[in-house]
Amino acid sequence: MGDVFSRQAASQEVVLRALVRSFTVEQSVHDVAVNLLGQIHSKEGAIAFTRESISQAVTASEASMQPAESKVDAVAGVGDVPGEAPLLPNLLPARSPTGQQRKCSLPRSKSKQGSGLTGAVSSWPLEPLRRSGSKGYGGEAENSAGSKPQVFVSAVQMLAGQSNMHFHEVAGQILFRHRRSSVIQERKDFRKVAEDISWVFRQSSSSDAAGTKETGGKRWVDAVFEHMCVKGEFRFREWQKVVQLIQRNPILKNRVRLSDTDRLFYNITHRDTEARSSLNSPREFRELLMCLADACAVHPGMMFYAVGCHDRALAEAE
């Protein structure tokens, strides 16, 4: 379980970098961080990070990467022993006799056709998104130390470590909220990572109990969906009954707005070319709960617990 978690977190990190690079050059890393981290919810039902804490984390992340500049200077020949060749001459830009700058010939790894998240988990971690002629975010190297994606990821790791949250919880909320963005939609493997909500049920990255809780939580929520189905269909009337169960939770009672529940159900059942009156699968039910949690400004785990806890009572009532 720990190995699977680390690979999923690595994939989330890759997609996060691509998402950060999609912002305009004029937006500073502080603005991007506030934009992406300002609506992260903790398990306690509150906003996880204040604007001040986000700014402090970004500043600390930038400061921690300053020494990396000396390493770049060393590679460029600064500090080399006189009379000896540079450390990595083949990776450095050089000028031809005519004065034109030559391009670096960096080796690139080739991914096998059909790789991604459509098959086995061994396809993690993902390769970063690359475009021909792209210099990355703001003209910087995509994953170089001190670049905006690198500073942002480091700030996320710092904030997660300071709070009662894990990196996959923070990254998972960001990616799910921005799963419709063009930079994620243009790659199937990126979409798979953004839409993967298994992190909601995972409470730990190293213990076996995490896997048990993840499997159990997902099974309980799916069971509620099956119990609520009438003749194999989960229509709006069944969704209203689930909303009533959610409102029994004292924290969620005053946060659930019926206008949101109506709108979200309509959005999911009418997003295809043909409108339908019911949900197609437990997967869509989980997606609907994720969207409702975002609308209620709570951690998704709280919403899933408010639904899954009724599994046994519904089974006994049948």
Give the SSE map:
Elements: H1 2-21, H2 29-37, H3 51-64, H4 68-75, H5 148-162, H6 167-177, H7 182-185, H8 188-195, H9 208-228, E1 234-235, H10 236-246, H11 258-269, E2 278-279, H12 282-295, H13 300-308, H14 311-317
Antiparallel strand pairs: 1-2
Helix pairs in contact: 1-5, 1-6, 2-3, 2-5, 3-5, 9-12, 9-13, 10-11, 11-12, 12-13
Describe it.
The protein is mainly α. It has two domains: 2-67 and 121-196, no CATH class; 208-317, no CATH class. The chain has 14 helices and two strands, in the order αααααααααβααβααα. The protein has helices at residues 2-21, 29-37, 51-64, 68-75, 148-162, 167-177, 182-185, 188-195, 208-228, 236-246, 258-269, 282-295, 300-308, 311-317, and strands spanning 234-235, 278-279. A two-stranded antiparallel ribbon has the order 1-2. The protein starts with a helix and ends with a helix.
Number of strands: 2
- Which percent band covers the strand fraction? under 5%
Task: Calculate the terminal CA-CA distance, rounded to whole Å.
Answer: 35 Å
**What structural class do you assign from the helix and strand content?**
mainly alpha
Overall tally of domains: 2
Major beta sheet summary: 2 strands, antiparallel
Q: Taking strands numbered 1, 2, ... along the chain, how are they ordered across the largest sheet?
A: 1-2
Shape: elongated
SSE order, one letter for each helix or strand: HHHHHHHHHEHHEHHH
* Overall average pLDDT: 77
Helix proportion range:
40-55%
Supply the number of helical segments. Answer: 14
Q: Enumerate the spans where pLDDT stays under 50 for 5 or more consecutive residues.
A: 68-97, 101-125, 127-140, 204-213
Radius of gyration: 23 Å
